[in-house]
Amino acid sequence: MRNQGMGSWPARRARMTPERVALSYRGRDHTYRELCERVNRLACALAASFGVRRGDRVAFLGVNQPSAVETFFAAGLLGAVFVPLNTRLAPPELRYVLQDAEPSVLVLGEERDGDGLPGRHLPARDYETLLASGSPEPVDEPVGHDDVCLIMYTSGTTGHPKGAMLTHGNLTWNTFNLLVDVPLAHDEVVLISAPLFHIAALAQTLVPSVLKGGRVVLEPSFDVERTFDLIESERVTVMFGVPSMFGFLARSPRWDKADLSSLRHLLCGGAPVPEPLIRTYQERGLLFLQGYGMTEAAPGALFLGAERSVEKVGTAGVPHFFSDVRLVAPDGSPARPGEPGELYVRGPNVMPGYWRRPEASAEVLSADGWFRSGDVGVADEDGYVRISDRIKDVIISGGENVYPAEVEGALYEHAAVAECAVIGVPDQKWGEVGKALVVPRPGATAAPEELLKHLDGRLARYKIPKYVEFVAELPKNAAGKLLKAPLRELYGG
Amino acid sequence: MRNQGMGSWPARRARMTPERVALSYRGRDHTYRELCERVNRLACALAASFGVRRGDRVAFLGVNQPSAVETFFAAGLLGAVFVPLNTRLAPPELRYVLQDAEPSVLVLGEERDGDGLPGRHLPARDYETLLASGSPEPVDEPVGHDDVCLIMYTSGTTGHPKGAMLTHGNLTWNTFNLLVDVPLAHDEVVLISAPLFHIAALAQTLVPSVLKGGRVVLEPSFDVERTFDLIESERVTVMFGVPSMFGFLARSPRWDKADLSSLRHLLCGGAPVPEPLIRTYQERGLLFLQGYGMTEAAPGALFLGAERSVEKVGTAGVPHFFSDVRLVAPDGSPARPGEPGELYVRGPNVMPGYWRRPEASAEVLSADGWFRSGDVGVADEDGYVRISDRIKDVIISGGENVYPAEVEGALYEHAAVAECAVIGVPDQKWGEVGKALVVPRPGATAAPEELLKHLDGRLARYKIPKYVEFVAELPKNAAGKLLKAPLRELYGG
């Protein structure tokens, strides 16, 4: 095959193990042979009916379902770029992303309609007919590792989402980094209930499973009872989750008597993992592995492998084998052990840049390939890094990143808001939730509920603060710049 | 690290697991921290004392010993090219290779002296002193995947050995291909008694072990008793061998009572693997995995994974995940299932060419990246390939390739030889051995023993035919071209 990218993986895997089950969904099994054939037909049909060519974008909006997986691989087969959309985004946010990505087609999941969204759509009711119209003749575009495989949107300090471009090479090398640390076998049963529109589920579970010939048990979303049911009935061996998912499981009444004996590797990431949570799993005799990453690094940067997962609990581990991490002190020198430093990542897994955002790309990527994470870490004498703070002010709520600047921007659109700041406060269930501190305009009388209602529909639900508090003033430095640290001290408890 | 190549692997591994044992040799354990430090010092010392720079060659002559491993990684750290020499070569053959490779230094194993060999030498007695003189300051050359990592000499139809250049990327991708099929864990104990100057031991065992953090038990050479001792005492989990090695073990009186319970994966290759041998191991409950490869593909092309190792026994399997194989019928069309075709390989593991031999490279490498193996295979309906014949006429004796043209060339230097042809004949112990068929010059009276004595010292011992037979004439076609097929039929029994 000339195609060296992700799109060729179903065919490469089907060459080896055509009859193994690739995907189980709602009780139906799809073998690798079927996956390969369906992906090929879909690619041909997308090219024929929507004119999808190399470099074009193919968007997908929907919760986890087989068409999401097939669209990802079919886009790759054509050398086109997969753009998975966060289903939790509000309509204006989705419109913004679609106008930025300009996909040739938006493939819709079963539960979605495309009302009000720009561009051409492929509704779920037409999906099978379109797929069946595609030629079974193998597609083989010369796709290389440097070609862009997907664009994943991530917000940032600027408020507007940016599309992180990940190449086929980025995803491939991330897979190798993972395989060095996690010896996935050929008979893994991989439960995916975290959303595939986030990099972790896609890159840490789906892609490695197809490489090794494992079976993915695909779930539309996470549910505690269903997770226990599936672990027991499907004999799940691998699962990825954000800390809040693992927290829900451990606090469930089923936790004590559930049969978890099939589990080999639990992968946790997407947010800081509380030590007590890790210990709860370790005390159960489970291998609970965590790391640190970001969409821009496809995503793995640091990983705490099995060998020292108990001894170094609470740290995010050491750099992955093929990646490098450095911590830079405020004066630009390398941070010494015990000293905080901003975390930079370099390696074949680091993105080439943001889609159509050369300035934003240049801000985070240096000429020699270092990606500036905006997070602060402290390494111990053995090089194990603890993530201590986030320069970017991001709030991580249930595994979703919430950027205060974006929420503040939406709040400022309300007439009653003179000044505002959004901070994260600890939450037992979600890790963190947002709290908005608002200085009202003189004479304005909006209640907190009214401000929350104002945000509803403008922002994804997970971005909307849980608390709104009116304050007389916000702390600032001499230059008038808002100071978040004292705010967190005053209001973050 | 800027170094993305093999040379950086000890440091990358030491970052993760500094205290794990990398190498056990003669009862002494070397941790990854030690390996990393020693490789770094050696690299600095080779640069300082022998002027080794990027692209320069560093040769090694000796049986398996820690300095072979260290020289391989140290060369890679400098971006220099490792040239391991076959210890079985006769002095004129070694001189030829050294004159072709022009190394900056020849590192000598403990059991060797460099008498009569060209260039500068590093004798074993000076090795530790030199290494200790090297700076511990980390070396970090910007070595990429396209840089040449090593040159391995292989003979061919032309008679003279050619240096197959393998890049860091070639070896890296071969490792990934292997890891897809063989789920190496982090606690493997890898017995290496096959010589590291052949690609299989280096690329299928040493390199993957360092990637995963396994422990290599290094032996200077293969010995049946010692192998059983080590499997039992070191609890060996992985072993590579050529078929004759596995044959010796299975025919040993110790076979029946040996404790082989620690073995997880036996990897066999380098020559056609007899089906009864595979079954002997499988009946013992062992996972006996085989493939097909060549130095030029670093080396894996086909692999028969665990899942169908019994069902498809006798075939060399299907293409590795990231590599492609095609079979080409004599008329240039793709061979259909059941039809023989010449085997071509393409993928990121295929060499860029032979050292300083553009014509020889162009003969075997097409513009679009296909390597022409010279071997013939037949695929079944499932794509499993059985290697059926070798266009190149190569004889594989105890895992060493013997090219008849080279042996015939040496025979022709004897005055009594008018015409000759060397063919392979089956041998219980070595798989194949050479048989020379000689038409004597009119009036000449040389005995077979005299011809064998003539070859001694000119050729490596393993290349010298076991049998010499005088014949009245050799079969030829109308154009006078020697026909080997009827020769094999007449004399190959």
From TrEMBL, chains A, B:
Domain AMP-dependent synthetase/ligase positions: 12-355
Record InterPro entries: AMP-bd_C (IPR025110), AMP-bd_C_sf (IPR045851), AMP-binding_CS (IPR020845), AMP-dep_synth/lig_dom (IPR000873), ANL_N_sf (IPR042099)
Alphabetized Gene3D superfamilies for the sequence: 3.30.300.30, N-terminal domain of ligase-like
Domain of life assignment: Bacteria
Family from the record: Belongs to the ATP-dependent AMP-binding enzyme family.
Keyword field contains Ligase: yes
UniProt lineage: Bacteria, Bacillati, Actinomycetota, Actinomycetes, Streptosporangiales
Domain AMP-binding enzyme C-terminal: 406-481
UniProt KW keywords: Ligase
GO MF term list: ligase activity
Keyword Ligase: yes
PROSITE patterns in the record: AMP_BINDING
Annotated protein name in UniProt: Long-chain fatty acid--CoA ligase
PANTHER family: ACYL-COA SYNTHETASE, MEDIUM-CHAIN ACYL-COA LIGASE ACSF2, MITOCHONDRIAL
